[in-house]
Structure formats: C-alpha cells, structure tokens
Amino acid sequence: MNQNFLRNFSIIAHVDHGKSTLADRLLERTGAIPERLMRDQVLDRMDLERERGITIKMQPVRMRYKEYTLNLIDTPGHIDFSYEVSRALKAVEGVLLLVDSTQGVQAQTLTTLAMAQAQGCVVIPVVSKIDAPAARVDEVSSELAKLLHVAKEDVIAVSGKTGAGVDELLEAIVERVPPPSQKATEGAAPDSDEPRGLVFDFSYSKHRGVAVYLRVFDGTFKKGQPLVFRAAGKEFIALETGIFTPGETPADSLSAGEIGYIVTGIKEPGVVAVGDTIGAAKGTLPALEGYGRPRPVVWASVYPESQDDLPLLRQSLERLRLSDSSLSFEEESSGVLGRGFRCGFLGLLHLEIVTERLRREFGLQLIVTIPTISYAVTTTKGVREVVYTPAKFPEHGDIALIEEPWAKVIIIIPPDSLSSLIQLLYEHEAQTVGTETYQDGRVEMAVEMPLRELMRGFFDMLKNISSGYASLSYELLPERVADVVKLDILVAEESVPAFSRVVARRRVQEEAEKMVEKLHATLPKQLFVTKIQARALGRIIASKTLSAMRKDVTGYLYGGDVSRKNKLLDKQKRGKKKMLERGTGKVNIPEEVFMKMVQSDS
Hints:
- Helix content is 26%, strand content 32%.
- The chain is an alpha+beta fold.
- The longest helix has 21 residues, at 562-582.
- The two termini are 53 Å apart.
C-alpha cells in the first residue's frame, strides 16, 4: 500500500464529549458499515459500554475516503482508562481533540492533549455538539484555539448527531495528518523489507488463541510467516492477517504504516504482552520501544462467595487480563474469607468495571473489599517494605516512617461553587499550587493531595457541590511522608484482620467510632457478653459492649419461691463468665456481617 494515501488517527476527549457519536458519523459518511448494520455507539462492543454510555476499550476501524485509507482508533475518555489512550497514541500520527461546545475545555481534555503532544501527534481541534441548544460554539472555539496556539479558523465545528461539519473534518484529516513514515523506527535500514510491528492490544478466542492488534512499522506481514515476540522469545506461525472493519476481517497482508491484527494460535497465558515487538523469526531488526507498565492506583481483594469457585475466579481474571493489560492480581488468603486475589486497578471506575465483568461474563458471586492504596513502611529496624493491605501493616511501635503516594489534581469548576470547593479541599488535606480563570468565568485549580484522600469519595463530593459541572483529572506524584495509623477492630479482645484499615491520624477517632457502631448494629448476640473495640496508636480508642444472648433456663419452673429461678440465672451467669475466662467461648461472625463490614459503603 502506498503510504502517501494512508492516514492513522485517533479521537481523544474528556468523558462524554461525543467521541463515539462522532465515530458513528465518520463510519456512516465513509460507508465503512452498511446502513442496515448501523447503530448508535457502533464501536462500543461491550454491553457495559452501551449501558453506561462510555467507552472502556479502545477500538480500531478502517475506512475509505476518496483515494485515502483512514485508520481510526476510538479511545476512552475516563481518566481510569488513560492507559488505553496512551497505547493508541503510539500507533497513530494525528488526533482529533474533541471539546463539547456546551461545556468547554475540561480537566481530562488537558491530560489527553498533553499525552498526544508528548507522542508528537498532530492535533486537529474540533468543537462538538454544535446542534445543542446550549452550544457556545464561538466562545469554545476561541478557548480551544488559545489552548493550542492556533488560529480560530483552524478549529472545526461538528455535530455527531446531525453530521454537520463531518465532510470538512474528513478533508482536514487528509490534509493535516501526515502519512506514516519509517524514519521514526529504530534500527531500520531505508530499504529494509523485514517485517516489524508494535503490539498495542489483543483479543482472545478459545479456537484461535490470541489475536494481536499491531501497528506495522517495517516490511510486510503475511499469513504463514514464521514470526517471533521479541521480548517473550516465543515463536509462532501467523495463522491469519487482517484489518478492522470494525470486525476482524482477513486480508492478504499488512504492510508498513498499516494497523491490523495477526492471529497467533497461542493459548497459554502470560506469553503475549502489550508493548512487545513482533518480527521475523530469523530477523535482525531490534525491538521497538514499548510501553511503560501501568502502575496500580488502588487495591482491593476479590473473593468468591463459595470457595469452590476459586479456580473459576483465577481463570476469569487471567482471561480479563488478556483484554485489559492494566489489571494486575496475586493470590492471597484470609482466615475468614478464605482464598481470593489481591487486585490492582487504575482507579475506582476501573475496579467497578472489572468486578461487574466478572459477575456478568463469568457468572461469579463475589465479595469485594474496601479499596485501599499502597504504603511504603520503614520499620524501627530500618527495613523498608511496600504494604498493599492494612492487615499486613507492622504494629504501631515498630513503625519509624510511613510514606504514601500523592497526586497532582486539576479541577475545573464553575465560579459559584468555588467556596464549597475550598472547604472540600481542606477536608481532604489538599494544597493549592495554582489557579487560572477561563473566559467563561470557570476556574481551573491545580492542587496536590494524598492519593488516599482522592480515593475517599472526593470525585463524588466534587460533583455534588458543583451540581455535576466540575471536572477532574490527576497524575501521580512521588511518595511523601504520611500521617496515618492502622486501625484494628477487636471482637472479644481478638483482632479481626479483615476489618483493619489505614486512616488519617486526624480522623482515626471518627472512623473508630463509626466502625464499632456499625459492627455493634450488625453482629448477632453471642452466648456471653462481647466487647467490640477499636485499637489504634497502641491503645483502645472506641468500645461498645454487646449484651449476651439470654437463654430462658427457667422456662420449666412454675410457682414456688423466686429464689429457685434466681439460682438458675446465677448459674447461667457463672457459666458464661467461665467460658469467657477460659477462652472456650468463641465469637461466631456470620459471613453476611463480614460482607457488610469489608465492602465499601457505596
């Protein structure tokens, strides 16, 4: 294929700015999908994507416009899936930066723009939803032009709903996005015909194994070729090569500059990885620069309700990791909940999506614990370790230093919500580092805050105080010294590891009382008086007593002296006291109580 007639581009934007709807119109206008098969969000394959109206997985598709071949990669907008966006950007030369004309530039707009510019992509500014009654096309176009330092006339106005401006946009893609070039690849000779491509995603089928999605940088890939994964060292025969229309469609070959897929036939897990280079089995070209591994932001333990489902849960997580390379997990064991997996996620929405997919696609009944972050703990003996779960925190007297990750947060908010935001930032230990006012009066605030506070429902509270108009994006910062403590819950003077939490020192009393009260309300009465206590900083800081279940030992008596009844009641009381003193009385904590305590309140 002549590379001069090839254009690779992606659509990037803040969540809900109309990426998928615009992609529908591009596919419709170029005739990529027959009219009888056209539907809304045609590139969103998962039921969850269609139900929530968000894109979760990137999706490549090929289109024809005049004599040009256009390869589009539709990307997610939510910050939890920014790793998907970063991978897509490495496979394209240009991007459409989409901004909703009713909302203007948002926090995630700035984040995705920075990612595109870092990859050297040509940016085409696009204002969307121009048919909306509340559209501010002229104002938002000026805002976008100022952000990109371009003329206002370079901003293209479109409507994904009506199709207005789509023809002009297609012309701009052809004119402004450069054709692919081999000069950017490392170690390739100018006349090299040795095939080499970068894996940016993959899918899995029981029958065909892994199909890798790749951008070809050198040479030509064909069916039947002996190939190798450079990093994994695994050789295979290309069972099929093809393109996306948007389904996987076989093609005779994939040449330099093209985006397509190769069916590998590999079925064992852990071989194929995003960022690996595919080359000729006997080739001499070096591997391409891959992708950095995504760093989990939050951790949560996932247990099957029935331990019989543990093998299915393990297999399901491995299958999900084939289509979601940012998911990480390792097996762990709890004395109460049994065996399960400690999973790492890129955010709370990512956690929610993964657990929902486990329930829907694999029929699993799950117990998901409260999300936590990781801490770097240095003990008094000088040993530094990374702790992912509160239950493994050293005791208070053994800790010399605790460090935690911080985040730089960009917030864009209407001016009338500013005073509420300042109070919210104070409550979440945030430090303001900069502010900027937009033409429409909105305020952009840059703050730094502990990641644990960001994950403590901050985004939901932000949306609440701004009536849904605020937007947020964040990036991780290096670790800083943390003022946090481990909070243990004791039942009958025995610690229950599953209930342990790490909380800010200034909120430890509030959290302790809340947890003790919650357990007191849900734990059934035992045969003896049961103490429910919260311990932190080496001492008990909250306590409640659950009265004993009183068995009616006098039911068979009738009439006579009341002292007979009192003797039996005193005997019962002494028996309960002996049970407690000898340690023979064990507290029975039902499974539903554990579920209520370890699961998030939301």
